[in-house]
Every structure is written in C-alpha cells, then in structure tokens.
Amino acid sequence: MCEILKVTRSNYYHWLNTDTSEKDLQTEADTILVKNAFKRLKQNAGARSLKGYLENEKSINMSLRKIRRIMVALGLEVKTQKKFKNGNVSHINDPKIQPNKLSRNFMVSYPNQAWVADITYIKISTGWMYLAVYIDLYSRKVVGWALDTHMRSELVETALKRALWNRKPPKGLMVHTDQGSQFVSNNYRRLLKHWSIKQSMSRRGNCWEGLPLEGIMR
Q1: pLDDT tens digits for 9-46?
Q2: How many domains would you assign to the chain?
Q3: Would you state the pLDDT for residue 81?
Q4: Nearest-CA neighbor of 146 among 160, 136, 128, 135?
Q5: Contact 120, 156 (CB under 8 A)
Q6: Which residue of 5, 19, 116, 128 sits 20 to 30 Å from the alpha carbon of 161, by its own alpha carbon?
Q7: What CATH number corresponds to the domain at position 205?
Q8: What is the CA radius of gyration of the chain?
Q9: d(CA 112, CA 135)
Q10: pLDDT in tens, 49-90
Q11: Residue 92, exposed/middle/buried by CB under 10 A (0-12, 13-18, 19+)?
C-alpha cells in the first residue's frame, strides 16, 4: 500500500502512532488553509488551482484528494462567472453610431492611416481581466493597449491615449471599432474629436469587418 501510494513506511507508522487529537488538529489546520485559499481566490478556484496556490504561495504540499475532500465537507463550489460580452447600443438608429468608413479596406498605404480596436477578456486565477487593444492596419502592430478588471469606457480611452502619445498621428487618422457601448460613450467621442480622428464602426453582428484584429486577439 505504501509503495503504491508513494508513502514511506516510516511516515505511515508515525501516522498510526500519532495521537488522535493531533490528527484532528492537523485536519482542522488543513481545513482552515483550504477555506482561506478558496476565499483568497474569490471562490473561483477548483482543487487543482487551490493546490497550486498553496504550493506556490504558502509552500504547503497538500494532496488533491485531501483538498477535494475538504471542499466537499465545507460545501465549497466554484462560482460560474459569465464571460465577457461586448455590449452593443440599444437602438440601431442611435445618432452616435457612425457608418463603416473603412468598408473592409484593410490594405492601407501608410502608417497611422487607419487603426482598429477591440476588447477581449483574459481568464486569470483571481477572475477575469479585460484587454483593450489598438493596432495599426499598415504594420499590424499594436500601438496602444490597456488592461483592467472592468470594461467601462475608461479602458478603451486609456488604450487610445497610450497609442496617441506613442504615435502622435497627424490629422485624418481613422479608428474603426464595433458598436460597443464603450466606443459610443461621450468621453470617448470627445477624445476622438480633440485629436481630429475619424470614427468608423462595423455593422452590428458582422464579425468580418473586424477580421484583422480578431486574428490578433485570438
């Protein structure tokens, strides 16, 4: 049995001879460790993630079987989070919606002629992070990005400001996005106007119009 379970005989006999109260104390300590780790990871980690956290952060080696047993005993279940959905505006005839000036013309002639932008989500151990990215269609290089725990308009504004400070484009730059609520917000539109940027938007539900950026974000 010891050979199969990869346990030394000395440890097994030590466990047999250990006082029951000491075993109970150890079990209680392990329970507290698992409970605190589960809470620290915002109730979004399974047994394997908890095992990795305990090993990396606490230098504690606890078996998956024990962690699962403790989770069941405590009723700890991973909360399912909804994945990111890029919110679209409610009304198709909203005056803030701009026409598709890019018209799938992805082959541009010079740098800073047209940028495309989008938001994606990234799963990490503590939950979801949201990434906004701008790329230059001429070089297909990322010119600005921002990462945060929210997907409000500040996220795309920060990414755009970084791109503008980095590239300092001339007047006439076109920025193409979908119709997400972040890209029709008043603050975002004011930022575009301040830099004399032309705004272009894909039609709703048409993934082909954002194809270059889709490939990079994936």
Answers
A1: 888 887 777 655 555 556 778 888 888 888 888 777 78
A2: 2
A3: 55
A4: 160
A5: no
A6: 128
A7: 3.30.420.10
A8: 26
A9: 9
A10: 888 888 887 788 888 888 888 888 888 887 665 554 544 444
A11: exposed
Which phi and psi angles does 217 have, rounded to 5°?
-65, -30
Q: Which of 153, 66, 131, 138 is nearest to 108 (CA)?
A: 138
User: For the CA atoms of 48, 53, 54, 58, what is the dihedral angle to 10 degrees?
Assistant: 170
Closest residue by Cα to residue 130 from 146, 144, 114, 109: 146
**pLDDT per residue as tens digits for the range 113-170:** 989 999 988 888 777 899 999 999 888 899 999 999 888 899 999 999 999 999 999 8
Tell me whether residue 123 is in a domain: yes
Enclosing domain of residue 205: 114-217
For residue 88, is it within any domain? no
Q: Are 119 and 182 in contact (CB under 8 A)?
A: yes
3-state secondary structure of 79: coil
Identity (one letter) of the amino acid at 124? I
